[in-house]
Design goal:
372 residues, alpha/beta, UDP N-Acetylglucosamine Acyltransferase, domain 1, 5-stranded parallel sheet, 22% helix, elongated
Length: 372
């Protein structure tokens, strides 16, 4: 796939709002996931594993942690002289009023990047719908059928919820109907994964047309409104998908990684790369009890931990009970604490003797650096 450019569109306003407070100080793309990753690691790794060497990231806001995590792209072998990784500034950088219209603005402000790139095709991916996909077969399908746009979708796996884009296909998987609604509910057979393979000249044409007619949403007005103008086809993805568009879904998909089959599908088909950290192995004291838990490096665990996700540099004191929880980097749980269905953000701390019990469909979220 040497003739394909990758673009990660980090502008997901509606999804980021539903992910508060985890997105209060960071972009949705940089939300931690699975014990050591960030959401953006998945689209970046998918691109690299598919042979893409020219990748642009459309920034929106709160991207300091994203830049810190990715750096020059060394973990993905994108720190190279030709091609490599490009951070594409938000339209807000060029505007005095700062009023956000839509992600088409960000595409439009970086059209010079698209014009300069020699690749003829572009894969546009959002970071909040994660999977382990190789685009080789998608590209072959796209070229063989002579498509202008290919929309990657999943079948019979998800109940469409907030911000779902659903589609129907006819002969040869040509899309005959596509719609998006923030309140769309019900069972649908085909749901977009917000991943699109587009001929570059078509993408530029779509952006120009949207800007000239005052349309600013890439999916609704760039893709959906043009399914009859261009040859738009669907391509089914058969793997496991996680849609991280709410706190409940974030909690659910993290804990689903404790199931071996799902974990294997996410991480073993192709490697998912992330920023490395030089930390010692975790220390498990004799009195600790750990059951069905994913743990990162550098942890010190002396309590009871069940069905949980532990990131790095976590401290869990003795006589503690932790069940169905997500503890992010630097979190600390003091002696005598009992927590269940809780998310501790980075460097959060639960003081001795406290008890927090959330629900599986409504976990308690403790914000970054907060002390309870």
């Amino acid at each position: 796939m040497q003739n394909v450019l990758g673009i990660i569109n980090t502008s997901q306003k509606e999804e980021a709002k539903e992910m508060q407070p985890l997105t209060s100080i960071r972009s949705l793309a940089s939300v931690p996931f699975g014990g050591r990753y960030r959401l953006i690691d998945f689209p970046l790794s998918n691109f690299v594993n598919s042979g893409l060497t020219n990748i642009g990231i459309l920034l929106e806001e709160k991207y300091r942690s994203l830049l810190d995590h990715i750096g020059p792209g060394k973990a993905w072998e994108l720190d190279r002289k030709w091609g490599g990784l490009y951070f594409l500034p938000s339209a807000k950088v060029y505007k005095k009023d700062g009023i956000y219209k839509g992600d088409i603005e960000n595409f439009n402000c970086n059209l010079d990047y698209l014009h300069r790139c020699k690749e003829e095709y572009v894969v546009v991916s959002s970071p909040h719908i994660i999977c382990n996909i190789n685009y080789d077969k998608v590209f072959s399908f796209h070229k063989n059928i002579n498509a202008d746009i290919t929309v990657i979708y999943e079948r019979n796996r998800t109940i469409a919820g907030n911000n779902a884009t659903v589609l129907e296909t006819g002969d040869n998987n040509k899309i005959i109907e596509m719609k998006h609604s923030p309140n769309l509910t019900g069972n649908y057979n085909k749901i977009s994964l917000e991943k699109f393979l587009i001929r570059k000249e078509i993408l530029i044409e779509i952006v120009d047309e949207c800007v000239s007619t005052g349309k600013w949403d890439f999916v609704r007005e760039g893709i959906i409104k043009n399914i009859y103008k261009y040859d738009v086809y669907g391509y089914p993805f058969e793997g496991v998908v996680g849609k991280i568009n709410s706190i409940n879904n974030y909690f659910k998909f993290n804990l689903e990684l404790l199931e071996p089959q799902i974990r294997e599908n996410f991480f073993m088909k192709q490697e998912i790369f992330t920023k490395p950290k030089d930390e010692p192995p975790s220390k498990i004291t004799p009195e600790a009890e750990i059951v069905n838990t994913i743990s990162g490096n550098g942890n010190i665990i002396a309590g009871e931990v069940k069905n949980s996700i532990l990131f790095r540099e976590i401290r869990i004191a003795k006589n503690t009970e932790i069940e169905n929880c997500i503890l992010m980097q630097g979190a600390e749980v003091e002696e005598g604490v009992k927590i269940k269905n809780v998310i501790l953000d980075k460097n959060a701390k639960i003081s001795a003797g406290k008890q927090l019990i959330g629900e599986t469909n409504k976990p308690i979220v403790i914000e970054k650096n907060e002390v309870i």
